[in-house]
Structures are given as structure tokens and as C-alpha cells.
Amino acid sequence: MPMTRGGRLLRNPGFLLGASIVAFTAIVAILAPWIVPYDPFAIDLNRRLVPPSFMEGGDPRNFLGTDQLGRDYLSRLIYGARISMVIGVLTVITSGLIGITLGVLGGFYGGRIDDFVVFCITTRLSIPAVLVALAVAALRGSSFLLVVLVLGLLLWDRFAVVARSTTMQIRNLDYVAAAWCAGVSRWWVLTREVLPNIATHLAVVATLEMALAILLEAALSFLGLGVPPPLPSWGLMISEAKEYMFFEAWVIIIPGAALFILVLGVNLLGDALRDMMGTDLSR
Amino acid sequence: MLRFFLRRFAVAVLVALTVLTLAFLLTRLSGDLAISIAGPNATAEDVATIRRVYGLDRPVWVQYFDWLGRAVQGDFGESYFFRDRVANLIAARMPVTLTLGLVGLVIALVVSLPLGILAAVREGSWVDRAVGLVAMIGQAMPSFWLGLVLMIVFGLQLGWLPISGVETWDGYILPGVVLAFSAIPSLTRLTRSGMIEALSSDYIRTARAKGLSRLSILVKHGFRNAAIPVVSIAAVQLGFMLGGSVVIETVFALHGVGFLAWESISKNDFPVVQAVVLILALIYIGLTLVADLLNAVLDPRLRTA
């Protein structure tokens, strides 16, 4: 008996692992205020850099220890999940809106409009994203919203590339021709015929971009121009702990591992979606 | 062929001009540049002096064309902080960044080509899946964090390699490895898919039928054809790596162009930031142009595109 797409997905260990990681992080992020053991901003200078409870010298009160200001590391890590998830999702929405609009228009209309879209994509790719994001953050003063906006304005290229090429393939298919013959409007064809049929491809891009956005936010915060302190962004936690890493390696291992696992989960999810469609979108 | 070259070249020039304009606009984002340069402790007179000295009192479009005219001649003005020509500063730091980029690219190719070929030859086996997993891990690795962890392990605990700086050649190894990680996933996947396509083609079947050795088939017939897209993507990846060098140079305190940009950003030294953004973009545009032309020469089917 042939398996359905969903059935095949549920048999894929990569999908199960990825989905579990992302779902777990999302739940932790949503429930953060109710599940944190301590206030993630509460400073206790008498109990600085206490190791995790499972290590030598650890204190059972702080499962993952405390940071250089005596703040509970687990609580900060949990709030950090919130920042990564929210930035990832908001960036994907922003960049998706820009990239999909450009890509679909270019692929659908072709000709001059398409030339313009390709030009925009080429220009965007030639701009060093991290550097420009840093410069903008330095000029405008970094904030949570600015990070989302900058990343959203910089990471739309893959959305545009994929939306454009898939739209081009669909444009000439029979069911689109049939819709034209039925006398529907352009808007109808775009929103009811084209978009739903390229949605799975776009979902794969969305996972890739979300992973990239989470990594870039961490890198920006690490360099001190992303999410401003005292917000516990994982990148910022690594940056603040950096001075102590040669004496206490766990201070950077913990937030870094959390970052790596979340990004791996998002990528696994995207990879499973891509396998399900049997297409290769990697560049 | 000539038509394709000219058209591709014209697009590259147009993109370069657009990037020039964007780089100019980038520094105007702050609102008043003179206030940013003067810093928080400046008086109103200081700001007025700076505005006059740097020509910021002229209309924006005059400033733009003045800057554009100089920039296309390679004159990016003077650094506010280092009190030196921006072009000199960048020229002095470029060798470090280019060396780092090339070391990273070589490491990435040395790792991804064999992995990609191996995965293609054993397509669908556990080897293939293991290679896929390696690519996946590389993609999820935060580069700055990997850099710090490698510093702790190889610099501090094992003491094999220097923790920062490039006074000796081995200082390039750790940052090179970290930089390579960003290119390994896509290069491996591309080598794999190129090899799979090449190995399933008719000429490979013919070669097998002729009784050629396995190695000869793999290298002479398979890899040569799979290498075409890899060469062009490698050029593009080098561009991305140079663009990403700001993070790695900062982590390892390498005094290259990325570190210069980072220093200048934190010191509000905008002519330098502007010029580095521009140079990195121009290098990328140049590399993609070369890659596209190379592709067209190697694969005549692409010329009509």
C-alpha cells in the first residue's frame, strides 16, 4: 500500500527529531514566565559563576549554575529560547513577505519585471549581510525590533529565488490555463492557483531562513550590536561569558549548545519537508 | 558568446553602481552624521566645525556625486579615527582577510569534495546518510561559538595552536577551519548531486562498458563533469566567506578587513565602514562574474541563458 506524504514524514527519524526539538523549544518559549525557577534578571553578586548542579562544586538550587552576575543560568536560557524563536519567526514573516512578493511577480509576469527582480536579488546577494546589519545597528542604536527589521530586509533573497522559479514552472501548467479560461482575475490566479501550489517549497525556505536568522541574531548579539542587555539572548550570553571561558568552559558551552540544537532542529525539519517533496532546493 | 559576456558585464557594473549608492545611503541612516562623528561630549561649535570640514553642510546630492566620483577612482576619503587614507588602511589589512578566505576555501574543498564523491558513490547507504548529517551539523554550527570552543580545546587544553593573532602561520588554522564550516555543507551537497547526475549519465555507462577501471571512471568521467558547478559555487562561497570574515576576525582578533570594519563601526568611523562594505561587495560581484563566465566557457549550454 503506498504511504501518504504525512505517513512518510512520520516515519522519517530526522523529521521526528527536528519536530520534537522545535516543538519543545516553542513550548518552553511560550511558557517561559511560568516555568522559570528564578527571575532571569535577578542579580546575586554573592553567588557568581556557580557551576551546574551536576558538576563539581555545583549547587542543587541552580541546575545550570549561575552567570557572572549570579543570575540563574537555566532561567536565562529559557528566556533566551523566547528571543531566538520570536526573532526567527518575525524575520521569516518579514523576509517572506518581501521575497515571495518579488519572486512571484517576477516569475509570473516575466520580461522587464522579471529582469528587475533578478537585479534586486543579485544586488542583495552582493551586499555583505552581517557587516551591513552591524553598521545599521551601530548607526540607529540596536534594539529587538531593529534586529528583526534588519534581518528581514537582508534575508529575503532565497524566498525570492525559489518563489520565482516555482512560479515560472506553474505559470504555464494546464490548471492555470484553465483558470484563465474560466475568466478569473489576475489576483485570483496569483492567490488561488499559484501561491497554494508553491507553498511547500516556500515552507522549506522558511525553515532555512529561520535557522539563518537565529544564527545571525546570535552573532549580532555576540558582537554587541544585536539584542541589547540585560535581555538573555543566547548570543549575548556567550559574549558576556567569554571572559571566563578559559576557566569555566561550561559558561559558553551551555548557551552555544542550546543554539546549535535549536538550529539543527529547524534544519532537520526543513530537510524532511524537502525529502517529502523529492526536490532539491539547496544552493 | 561575446553578447553574453557584454550583457553579463553590464549587469555587474549596474549592480556595482547600485551597491555604491546603497553604501552612501547606509551612512546617512543615522540622521545627522556630524553629531555621530563628534561623539556625545561635543559642543554645538564642534558639530558645526565637523560639518564644515567634512563638507556635510552641502546638499546631499552634491555630497553623493562628490563621494561617487572619488569612490570610482579608489579614493574613499580619510578615516576619522585612524587619521589615514581609507584606501591605505584597507590595503594594509586585505592580505590577512584574503589569506584567511583562501585557507578556509582550501580546507572546505579538501573536506567536501571527498565527502561529496563518497556520498554519491554510495548513494542511499549509511555512508550517504552520515555525510548528509555532517553537512547538517556544519549548517547548524554557530561560527563564533565554534571558534571559542576550538580555542578552549586546541589553544588552551591541548596547547597545539595559538589562541589569537596570526604572527605565525599556524594562527590561520583555527579561524580557517571555522570559516570552512560555513562553506562545507553547500559544497558537499553540490559535489554529491553533481556526481550522482554524472554517474547516472550515458557516457559513464559507455565507459563502464568499455571496461575502464573504477577509479578512472570516477575521476576522469565523473568528477570532471561534476566539478563545473562546484568551481563556480566555490568562487561564490569565497565571496560569502570574505563577507562573513567580520565575525571570525573579531573572535580570533585577526587584524584583517573584517576586524577593521568592526573597530570602525564601534568608533563611528563611517568612511571606513562604507569602504569595507563596498570592497567586499565589489569582490563578490567580481567573483560571481568570473564564475558565470567560467561556467559559460566550460559549459556551452549555459550561454543562451
Description:
The complex is a heterodimer of chains A (283) and B (305). Chain A has 283 residues and is an all-alpha fold. Chain A has helices at 5-11, 13-35, 73-109, 111-126, 129-140, 144-154, 157-171, 174-181, 186-222, 234-241, 250-277. The two termini of chain A are 35 Å apart. The model of chain A is unreliable at 279-283 (pLDDT under 50). With 305 residues, chain B is mainly alpha-helical. Chain B is built from 13 helices and no strands. Chain B has helices at 2-27, 33-38, 44-53, 60-71, 86-121, 126-140, 143-157, 173-199, 202-209, 214-243, 245-252, 257-266, 270-298. Chain B is flat and about 85 Å long. The chains are: A mainly alpha (283), B mainly alpha (305). At the A-B interface, helix 4, helix 5, helix 9 and helix 11 of A face helix 1, helix 6, helix 7, helix 8 and helix 10 of B.
Number of separate helices of chain B: 13
Euclidean distance between termini CA atoms of chain B: 11 Å
Greatest interface by residues involved: A-B, 45 and 52 residues
Rg of chain B (CA only): 24 Å
Uncertain segments of chain A: 279-283
Helix percentage range of chain A: over 70%
Question: What are its keywords?
Answer:
heterodimer; A: 283 residues; mainly alpha; 11 helices; elongated; B: 305 residues; 13 helices; 76% helix; flat
Would you summarize the structure shown here?
The complex is a heterodimer of chains A (283) and B (305). Chain A is mainly alpha-helical.
